[in-house]
Design a protein that fits this description.
The structure is a homodimer of 685-residue chains. Helices cover 37% and strands 10% of the residues of chain A. With 685 residues, chain A is α/β, with parallel strands linked by helices.
């Protein structure tokens, strides 16, 4: 009941406050008289069942008696059945979590206007077992690639003080099916595993648990040394293994349902088994052995790229493919959707189609590190679905989604991870509209088949207004927003031409000098020269195409058949190369950047028409963002076209609008923010 | 000298007249004092050399002495060398035709502003041996799919009266490298081979010959019966063979350099060898045997589609592939660029990549039957180059262009045909801008590598103005015009949803009733139903994809990898199918039709800015066309979206503009023109 006190107080306060966006998509109006809810005989009243019952009592307005039942013959694996029989809506599952998901599903149906007709049955089972947010939150309260204030986890106050935000966070996650959270940054501090910190973790886990959410931690592979005082962190060292075993035992004493570890090892300077001449298998399996008796998982990231590699995009495959089949059952290899790093548009990582004997899970980025952060509206469901539905051609036909849903052993777990966009700002995500990505990520883990249009509808109706005059146009804005961002940032497979470090805005010329890794420079990726543009990953280049199955390898490796959205990803293309529409690469670049500008302006214009349907506070906040997005699109266009023009030596097509900036000015401009800070909209060029 | 009298009189009169467009791209100002031209000793003064000399004397303004030489060690196959040595420009070739092409090349360089520097050598050989226009002109003066008045050939006046237009036509062709003309429609009347008509043909051939142009005729395969009075036209019948031999001998007596026959047989009701149980090989080889002693060719069209075929697009391949290798050396199979019929965008005909032992030539349509006729500006160089550069994957890699340029025997001839857009209207092509397609067709036959942008530049500078304020924007309009037309007419591989018969404007609902062939109905092609849109040519459908080599067969047959520009050509796609940009097929259709409208309006707006650079007459004529094109784009958009919406059951996206027409009105509208008439711009909806 403690949770409910918090919950209700949060909501009550929210309703009195100005519209700060804190209520997310959970804006049901409370009943004056509680709905009739019955927990059926034989169903244990767990905290989770209590939540389900209370949510329905408070918010269900559809009449009928609501019957909640947990029984062994109910749907397994978080699934549930909702059935309306006469005046009764029965909600049953094999678990109390399933009943809770049924409750949130019923309330969502109410809010978006889906009816539950007499005799209708809604039976759902989530596609992925583990639907997990990765928080890149640091113990010092900063959030890497966080654009919504500081971390929601108030480590200084914990465990004594438990913020009501934790429960609101848990509730929001449960309402969209998220059932796991990695609390801390993959660039993990060893101190995160200190006994002191673990007690704080336990306090959070206690809040999350009734909402069906298991707690996970990122771990620093060198923890035995850095924290435990051992002389090594060699995974084959008996003392190291014992240290981990003891530490894991300590964790499970505090957090009995602890989920396991997320590990970034031997990547971007983080320690790992290779420091001791051991492999990813040695490292991951050691942790897996330690966690297995407790039912814990290891999520081992494949985001590796040695500085010496000739093509960063090939590196994860090269390093992990030889290890396929050697990982323990409770290891999942966590693979970013693309071979590089959450770019506006990447082809899928070839590891998805290649690993046959190892469980893989996709890692998506909900936070918009490379997509306008908390300023631009970029609805990511379209991108994620594009990745999941990509055909890998493994074994005669297998999409990325199917590859990640295929269980490699009877015990293996299927999972999808999203890097959270959540912070302590009042509206959680910095931008009110960015809540849509948190929402969509959860819903897609549950059901990757649900359309992006449906997700946009659900989000908009629950969060803003169900008026079709609002939902219709804004659905289209959300659906078009990803492609628009690709157009004004990096069309045709361009990638990583962002400003250094903070990645907000264009900086294709970025080069700080010194011994910086070449693969941290835009020029490494765009390869602009007097001949053309793009990274040659064909046979004549890095041969990255060979990491894909046929016919993809041929298709992608051939300039004439490579899908044009990936043209510059796989090919160094002459400026004068004629594309399928008959225009040169250069002309198409110019028109496409301008198309992106037009689209961003269109979005701002559509939003301007939405004033009647949105409260003044959110309207104003979002208007500032859409206007800024349109300006940023111009900034991107001018920066990229003026910069690349130095290489192409070609004029802008005569029917293109003139640039609004001078290249010199843009190159002098520095946005003084770090990797933990959102840009100040007022100070952008 | 007779020719020159005509020539000069035409030009003189033109320069006094209002700007009627009759001068095409040949607008050099005549010298007051003739340039110094010397025909070198040993070079015979043929009529062709005389023309070359006179053109240079009249129009070359670059100083230097011009030296013309025909010598056996000069470039062969119509090729030439242009060399500037000090004050002399040497122009040499193994043939007088080569010298004439050198002269036109030099004059073109002058007109477009290319310099000929000291020591510079321009050495050119045309890519295709035969660069031929197909006139679909009927003896009664009509032109099938002609939108520029009536036929230029005044059969009634011939042979007594020879119109000066014939020579102006020959000169225009020579100036762009065209060296062949089929004078009459492929739907040929038997009477075309009457002795009376042949004397008229001879009179035309006499005018064309000095300009290096050989004359060809389309023949009706039943001529021995219909004209000769035989009881059969069976190609294996001795009397038939004799009839043809006699007829051919008669032709060659009149036209010693006669080129040969173009044959449309067993296609759309035309007679052919199959009427007698014989094959295309029997028919073509019989004519080839008859023509061979005279050096004549047979161009045998592969445009066949039996009414009973389950997929019209597969028919040409099915009928011709079994015959590969059986045709005589002097037979060329003439293949339309796509498998259906000159649609706004088609994949290439699989015959190009498939026939290994038979000479094939592409047939392009210069006249804009399906592309807005003489109203819309659609620059076709981009489309033709797209086809020629398409990879067929035959023998490890061969483009369509390479396939048609590969000689199958030492004697075989390479060729490219274009269906002419020429009529007797003053500006030749109905639209002043459509002259660009005649121009570009010739230039591309000569050099398929020259870019569409270069061709647009050349045309605009020579025809309208060399002012970069004109050329810059209008080059871009021309280059973008094809894709724009695809957008507002038939995006994503839609095809043949034109108005019945005349093919101007949209009529996806066209169904006149009665026993019409199913494959003459739009619904045969678009296959709209409640599920989706498009023609299934995958394995589950007609398996048309199997006519392409791997990896194309797999690539095209897989919804996820099929290039989206051909999506509905190869797949029946659900309306809700999510395309690569994250939008459904339906939403993308809506946005793309609107994009086409925006582009057409943009073209009209650009043209409006061109008033300072263009004479008033042509400005006004073209303005009316651009304005009408923009209106037609709206017509297309409304017709297609409103019609298909009946099947999709989905609303237009809320941020799309509302239709300007009602479907009922559009469906009632009939444009009362036939297949020989241009639409009246004033009477369109």
């Amino acid at each position: 009941m403690r949770f409910f006190v918090f919950l209700i107080s949060v909501l009550f306060v929210s309703s009195l406050r100005a519209e700060d966006g804190s209520r997310l998509w959970l804006r049901m109006e409370q009943n004056v008289k509680a709905a009739e809810v019955r927990v059926e005989r034989g169903t244990k009243r767990t905290p989770t069942i209590d939540i389900a019952a209370r949510e329905l009592e408070n918010y269900w307005k559809g009449g009928c008696r609501l019957s909640l039942r947990v029984s062994p013959d109910g749907a397994a694996r978080d699934g549930f059945t909702l059935r309306r029989s006469g005046d009764v809506v029965e909600m049953s599952s094999a678990s109390d979590r399933g009943v809770l998901y049924a409750a949130y599903t019923l309330l969502r149906m109410q809010q978006v206007g889906d009816s539950l007709r007499e005799g209708q049955v809604v039976a759902e089972t989530p596609a992925y077992d583990l639907r997990i947010l990765n928080h890149w939150d640091n113990p010092n309260g900063t959030v890497e690639r966080g654009y919504a204030g500081r971390s929601i986890w108030k480590w200084d106050e914990l465990p004594a003080k438990v913020s009501p935000r934790y429960e609101a966070y848990a509730r929001a996650n449960a309402s969209v099916g998220i059932n796991g959270a990695v609390l801390n940054n993959v660039n993990a501090k060893p101190g995160m595993l200190s006994s002191d910190m673990l007690r704080k973790v336990a306090a959070i886990a206690d809040v999350l648990r009734p909402y069906g959410i298991r707690t996970f931690l990122s771990v620093n592979f060198a923890s035995p040394k850095a924290l435990g005082g051992l002389s090594t962190a060699d995974p084959l060292d008996a003392d190291v293994q014992k240290w981990w075993a003891d530490k894991v035992a300590e964790i499970y004493k505090l957090v009995p349902d602890f989920g396991g570890f997320l590990v970034k090892a031997n990547s971007e300077g983080e320690p790992g088994p290779q420091d001791y001449g051991r492999s990813h298998v040695d490292g991951a399996n050691m942790l897996a052995d330690v966690l297995a008796p407790h039912g814990g998982l290891v999520m081992w990231r494949a985001f590796v790229y040695q500085a010496s590699s000739p093509d960063r995009a090939c590196q994860a495959y090269e390093e992990f493919m030889p290890l396929d089949g050697q990982f323990k059952d409770n290891v999942i290899i966590q693979v970013k959707n693309g071979p590089v790093d959450f770019q506006p548009r990447e082809p899928f990582s070839p590891l998805f189609g290649a690993m046959r004997h190892t469980q893989v899970m996709p890692e998506f980025q909900v936070t918009q590190e490379y997509l306008g952060q908390s300023i631009h509206t970029v609805f990511l469901a379209t991108m994620w679905k594009d990745v999941l539905s990509a055909e890998t051609y493994q074994d005669g036909g297998l999409t990325v989604g199917e590859a990640t849903l295929r269980r490699t052993t009877p015990k293996s777990v299927t999972a999808m991870a999203g890097v959270s966009n959540i912070g302590d700002s009042e509206n959680w995500t910095g931008s009110d509209m960015a809540q849509a990505n948190w929402y969509a990520f959860g819903r897609l883990c549950w059901d990757p088949e649900v359309s992006a249009a449906r997700l946009a509808d659900e989000f908009l109706k629950q969060t803003f207004s169900a008026d079709e005059r609002f939902v219709g146009p804004m659905r289209q804005v959300l659906l078009r927003s990803w492609e628009a961002a690709v157009h004004y940032m990096m069309p045709y497979g361009l990638h990583h031409i962002f400003a250094g470090n903070h990645h907000y805005g264009p900086e294709p010329w970025y080069h700080p000098g010194g011994n910086i890794r070449l693969d941290w420079l835009p020029e490494y990726y765009h390869r602009a020269d007097s001949v053309g543009l793009g990274f040659d990953r064909t046979k004549k280049g890095s041969n990255g195409v060979a990491q894909y199955h046929e016919p993809l390898a041929t298709l992608l490796g051939d300039l004439r058949t490579c899908p044009e959205e990936y043209l510059l990803w796989f090919h160094h293309v002459p400026w004068t190369y004629v594309m399928r529409n008959g225009l040169t690469l250069w002309d198409n670049l110019c028109y496409t950047y301008n198309r992106g500008v037009d689209e961003a302006r269109h979005f701002a214009a559509v939003w301007n028409e939405m004033r009647p349907y949105v409260d003044g506070e959110r309207f104003a906040r979002q208007k500032a963002r859409f206007d800024r997005q349109a300006k940023d699109a111009v900034w991107w266009r001018d920066a990229c076209l003026l910069y690349f023009r130095q290489f192409s030596g070609m004029p802008l097509p005569a029917d293109c609008p003139a640039p609004q900036h001078r290249l010199d000015d843009l190159m002098k401009y520095r946005l003084n923010i770090d990797n933990y800070t959102a840009a100040d909209m007022e100070k952008l060029p």
